[in-house]
Amino acid sequence: MKSKMLPLLLIVLVALVSFRVWRTMTADKKIECHARIHTNFTSNQCSAKNVLDVFMSMIGGEGYFYVSGSRSCSTALLKQSSSIVKFSYTREGNYYALHLGPRSEDAVKLFSVLKDNDVRLKVTPLNNDDYIVSTPFETLMMCTND
Hints:
The structure is a single chain. By secondary structure, this protein is an alpha+beta fold. The protein has one domain: Lipocalin, CATH 2.40.128. The protein contains two helices and eight strands; from the N terminus they run H-E-E-E-E-E-H-E-E-E. It has an eight-stranded antiparallel beta sheet with strand order 1-2-3-4-5-6-7-8. Strand 1 and strand 2 form a beta hairpin. The longest helix is centred in the first third of the chain and has 25 residues. The N and C termini lie far apart (about 55 Å).
């Protein structure tokens, strides 16, 4: 009797371990990271230098960007602004399809990826604490999980 139960127990054990590994690989992981971005902005009115902090959080199909920064033209005073942009997302292969909620004009001026209602992002882990966040066309930032 014991010799017949051993193969059955091994099959059940392998099935449980396989299910656990599959669930871990397909689970939606919590992604939170922070980046500081320095950019140059040029328009008809001025040439500006931007410094912005971006915090991104994604978990369970919902997330947000917290964008805080400043713009300064050589002829104008430093302008500070901050904004939270909420979004919903689904996973599509190696990308996340984000649908952005309402956002301020200042947030779009600081972080241009926020101009579209729908954005595709790829989040590539570098190590335990760092990620590269990119669209199909450009790398947006390298961020660190605090």
